[in-house]
Amino acid sequence: MPKSKRAKVVHLTKTQKKGKELSQKLFAAVQEAAEHYQYCYVFSVDNMRNNLLKDVRAELADSRHTIRIFFGKTKVMAVALGGSADSANEPVSGISSLCPHLSGSVGLVFSPREPTEILPFFEDFAPLSYARAETSSSRSFTIPAGTVYSRGGEIPVEDDVPMAHSIEPTLRKWAVPTRLVKGKIELDNDYEVCKDGDVLDSRQTALLKQFGVQTSEFRVKIKAYWSAKTGSVTVTNDAE
């Protein structure tokens, strides 16, 4: 009698195999990049967003310059750079000196671009995005009294539109004391959503997103970089 597919047993060794293969691919890719690029930069990230990291790649890459960005397991990246007891793992001279900086929310950028280009780029790159819960707000936001508009006073009333009446139950669910008056959402008094520096909860982040208010700053800081020309590592002022 054939075995039922419902009774099929999946062994843990099979589920672990994929993770091991990904680590091996990351190891090989980092070592290959080290052999082909003039510079390797260790970066740290505040308020990580994958889509914004893609923007970094798009900004730094062009027809003359390609880059590789790795944001994976720090232990695997460290071993790939030669940070182990076996010094033979070091793919190129001196690059293992980056390993002490591979801790926390960090990654690697391999690029032919010199520090005089890369460092100023990241100093100026600070796009805003919607905040997540348990992060600090970078500004205050208050919904003005009166008719509630879609941007909550962020833009002039003449450039805005009243918020759809169908949203009113959701606002009340988020503890905003609104009411419907002749099909429009009204507030009797100003309603403070958050103050500058507040650690936001999920209700506050939902309100900020509803009104299109972005308070989370995406920051990439270069901690250190390695040069193929000198075989040495330079620590920057942003290194912790």
Molecular shape: elongated
Task: Report the biggest beta sheet as strand number plus sense, adding barrel if it closes.
Answer: 5 strands, antiparallel
Q: Biggest sheet: strands side by side, in what order?
A: 2-3-1-11-12
Oligomer: single chain
Strand content: 15-25%
Number of contiguous helices = 6
Radius of gyration in whole Å, from Cα?
25 Å
The percentage helix is 25-40%
H/E element order: HEHEHEHEEEHEEEHEEE
What's the structural blueprint in terms of helices and strands?
Blueprint: H1 12-36, E1 39-46, H2 50-60, E2 68-70, H3 74-80, E3 106-111, H4 115-124, E4 128-129, E5 141-143, E6 146-147, H5 168-173, E7 178-181, E8 184-187, E9 191-194, H6 202-210, E10 216-217, E11 219-227, E12 232-235
Antiparallel strand pairs: 1-3, 1-11, 2-3, 4-10, 5-9, 6-8, 7-8, 11-12
List keywords for this structure.
five-stranded antiparallel sheet; three-stranded antiparallel sheet; 240 residues; elongated; alpha+beta; 21% strand
Structure description:
With 240 residues, the chain is of the alpha+beta class. Helix content is 28%, strand content 21%. Strand 7 and strand 8 form a beta hairpin. The termini are far apart. The model is unreliable at 3-15 (pLDDT under 50).
State the gist of this model.
The chain has 240 residues and is an alpha+beta fold. It is 28% helix and 21% strand. The protein has a five-stranded antiparallel β-sheet with strand order 2-3-1-11-12, sandwiched between helices.
